TrEMBL record:
GO cellular component terms attached to this protein's record: kinetochore; nucleus
Record's compositionally biased regions (Basic and acidic residues): 359-368
Name recorded for this polypeptide: BUB1 N-terminal domain-containing protein
Region (Disordered): 239-259, 273-305, 359-382
GO term, biological process aspect, one: meiotic sister chromatid cohesion, centromeric
Organism whose genome encodes this protein: Arachis hypogaea
Keyword Nucleus carried by entry: yes
Keywords of this entry: Cell cycle, Centromere, Chromosome, Kinetochore, Nucleus
Biased segments, Polar residues type: 274-284
Domain BUB1 N-terminal: 68-226
Gene Ontology MF, one: protein kinase activity
Keyword set includes Disulfide bond: no
Amino acid sequence: MAETAIEKVDPETEFLASKRQTGNEWETFKENVRPLKRGRNVNLLNHALKSYTDNNLKNSLYEHRRKLIEAIDEYKGEDPLLPWLQCIKWVQEAFPPCGDGSGLVVIYEKCVQAFWDSDRYKDDLRYLKVWLEYADNCLDAEVIYAFLEANGIGKTHSDFYISYGLHLESKNKIKTANRILELGISRNAQPVEKLKAAYRKFVARSMARSKATDDSMEKPPAPVRSFGTVLAKGQNRTHLAPFKSDPSDSNNSRSGAAPLSVYKDSVGCDDSIPHQTDISNSWHTLGPRAERNKENNAIPGKWKSYKIPQRPGTRTGIATASACIPVFVDEECQESQNVKEKSKKSSRLLQLRWENEKDLKRETEQIRKNPLRKFPQSSLPR
């Protein structure tokens, strides 16, 4: 009776062969995940990161993003900001790097542009947070904070003054940051206790910074040492100033040491022989001024005396317009163009060409450089 031999497989090989999921697949791409203040859903994160290797999943994400944009246009409810917030939150989860290809910055711009002049949302904390996230994604966030201050957006919330103050502090504008935080406290921005706590931390950091500056200024100068000084045990060379090289100072001479020999060329360097200039190639005379400036006295000629030869023959009449030539259009290109037109119509607010990722990245780069480019000039801070 033949016995079947059963090969034993180690647990690691068995797990890899089963292709089971542990929920820690995001560890492979954790360097590409942008952290969020509210945290991330691990299941959604693992699902989104699979798009790096699965083109079908990537296309499904783009399709779902397009549907969310269409939902913004078709929304008829009482809170027009709600579909924008849902779209922003989903894009942050579905595109963990939140890079230029995600379209997040473009959505930020269109969202803040849609409600900036609405009195209903000027004191809405949700709308203010969209502005603050938009500022974090732009190169010059101070322009956005100045715009919010000039238009009275978010002035009743402490988050505006805290974010504005931290940004100014990062740019070493301490006095302006202090003024902004005090302004928020004077306006009783809510929650005021959170703002006061942030202000106390700011004052502590400012005092520590000024104390460190004073200590560096009051540091005694390093002692001066002469050449050949023997350092004491435990003394650091970096704390000593460079030695003086004044030959007249007798303290700088090395005691008990032989003088340094200086090399001296013996050919053509005798001090007893005066220096003579080689005049074999020198000019004996420079000549008169007219001779020296002869290159600068060009005699002008008459250009009108020269004529361009013409070809013999008669001119032809004016060319008549020819019949229109039909342009060949490929069916696949026509179908792609129809899809783009449909996407533009369904997304008149965003006006994004999601099919072309290069255009989206170019648009995002322009927004980062000039975040208020599409706002009227009357609303911009002066």
